[in-house]
UniProtKB/TrEMBL annotation:
PANTHER family: URIDINE KINASE. Gene3D superfamilies: P-loop containing nucleotide triphosphate hydrolases (3.40.50.300). The keyword Manganese does not apply. SMART domains: AAA (SM00382). Keywords: Hydrolase. InterPro entries: AAA+_ATPase, P-loop_NTPase. Residues 200-222 are annotated as: Disordered. This is Nucleoside triphosphate hydrolase. It comes from the Bacteria. GO terms for molecular function: hydrolase activity. Residues 30-187 form the AAA+ ATPase domain.
Length: 222
């Protein structure tokens, strides 16, 4: 007898309601990690920063953001790999380093955890550029591939207490990403490569090959 595979249907939620769901994870002692996932240009950073501000309104310092972008390989490494033009693809990140940081954070000892920070203006990651203090109990990890069901990203399965996917139509992603690269001074040819050679294909890969999230925020809802 053939068994049918059942798929989790993510619950839709507004940003306002999401603050309450994350706050409910906090027991005052245990550190919790929330994954916020979406395609390039979906607004992950903006959402994570808004959640951080809202969660810290009642108790400053209990929530902090951990961006996946800090774990980009350096441009020199990407040149050696012949992957610099595709920076931002799944294979251009230090997944093991990200997992190690999550493991240290989940251990929740009395020591701060140093994490890298991506400087978008310089297009480089600065190692150990920020300390996450022990009093930060809600870690808002945000990035494209945190739920990607492909090695080595699949090693992150089970590392999160709650997962959230941002759902944005591709035409809106294209508009936002075009504005981003115009802002950073790219010419038309470079923008075309960024969009159709890298960003949008990466977004489709994330959408089609990620594990289902617990919750989803659909653009225009909350």
């Amino acid at each position: 007898m053939t068994s049918l595979k059942t798929f989790q249907v993510p619950e839709r939620i507004s940003q306002t309601a999401l603050v309450g769901r994350i706050a409910a994870l906090d027991d005052g002692v245990t550190r919790r990690v929330v994954a916020i996932v979406g395609a390039p240009g979906s607004g992950k950073s903006t959402l994570a920063e808004g959640l951080e501000q809202a969660l810290n309104a009642s108790e400053p310092g209990r929530a902090t953001v951990l961006p996946m972008d800090g774990f980009h390989y350096d441009d020199a490494v990407l040149r050696q790999m012949n992957r610099l033009p595709w920076k931002g693809a799944p294979d251009t990140f230090d997944v093991g380093g990200f997992r190690s940081a999550l493991m240290r954070l989940r251990a929740a000892d009395e020591n701060p955890v140093a994490v890298p920070v991506f400087d978008r203006a310089l297009e480089i990651s600065r190692g150990s550029a920020r300390l996450i203090p022990p009093e930060a109990r809600l870690i808002l990890a945000e990035g494209n591939y945190l739920l990607l069901d492909e090695a080595p990203w699949s090693q992150l399965a089970g590392m999160f207490d709650l997962t959230v996917m941002i759902d944005v139509p591709e035409d809106e992603l294209r508009r936002r990403l075009t504005q981003r690269w115009v802002h950073f001074g790219l010419d038309d040819a470079a923008i075309a490569h960024k969009l159709d050679g890298n960003d949008l294909p990466n977004g489709r890969r994330m959408r089609d090959h990620s594990r289902p999230a617990d919750l989803t925020i659909v653009q225009g809802e909350g």
